[in-house]
């Protein structure tokens, strides 16, 4: 069993983690305690990949014994610096009229004019290192973007289609300023096309998919018994095409596989069809809930390679447990979720309007990030909830957030497990959740450690939140029961399930 090498495929990993990245880190950290090598292979370009991985290690999010390899970092074979190519850390530029972009709040950004013409746009990180430069034509069309790492060296130049304002060609550079790869792109769809590798042994690939296959197979050459794990459905086709005499394949399903309304009445999502059409070609297919496994069995029949391994609930010590029961704001609710349509945060905010009408001092803090942030701000303003509902951004200390609240809220249209529910309960915070597929009924025991209400029932959702906030004794009972989730979804059981799976293939 120890000769097996678990390898997790991922597009990227980052500090700001959603549930999928947390799940990958948890599995990697668990397996590295038992196996000589555990590897994460990432396939997307990241401007500051090395700094990101180092920060992930430093924060203890991922064991340093877990190897992380990135395709673009590997293709960049010459990492020596040429200081002549370095851009200094400054927003100033001689000979230009400079205006600050006041709409960009997070990063310092400036527009540069030369003799009345808008010629450049620069964005900087908080440490004043340069993020990118956009170059403009006389007609104010963006012609190219130069991206820089934190050391001040250009890493990628994207050449733009002046009509679509989208990339047509990406060129990737080493620290000496030499292009090691060029990738063509369709400005209409964003999809990549032909790829050229430059240098001593030039190679050409018709598609980015061919390059990914080539790179991964090279990484597998020196590994005797690799087990490739796919956690996103766009990786399944890649796992199926890889060639290796002893390769094993494991697919892990993290999300609902149905189209809207995300239940048994709907068709299967298009991006799941590669997996479901090839169930027998994967050695194991892992579900997070028994309910989802049963739904797939009803659609595609019984198979011996379908298994259930729920996420573990992070254990907390007794001192933390006592704090979670007694040290909280009885009129505060929280949600940790990406600001995405899937999470239906608009419904939780509308429900909280009812809560505030009954408890004027009630607060609702939403932690996360995503493209729906502006819409959520507008909704909060429209409902005149600015004093009660706050968007707090990404939460570093998840346990502290849950411990501060009377309850947590989850209103997702769909989930794969609902890891935030387990995180809430393990910190002694009752959860009020929609009965979305999948996870809520597996995790929350209705009336025991929280409440499960019908999806879309805003009034019932608000009623349960009010009920918890109105009764300290009820909240205390729910909180004490919630702590049992640590036994129901233990780290030990999780570890044993994964070790058994790998021993069985």
UniProtKB/TrEMBL annotation:
One of its GO terms (molecular function) is glycosyltransferase activity. Residues 10-181 form the Glycosyl transferase domain. Residues 330-483 form the Glycosyl transferase family domain. The keyword Transferase applies. Keywords: Transferase. This is Glycosyl transferase family 1. It comes from Lentibacillus kapialis.
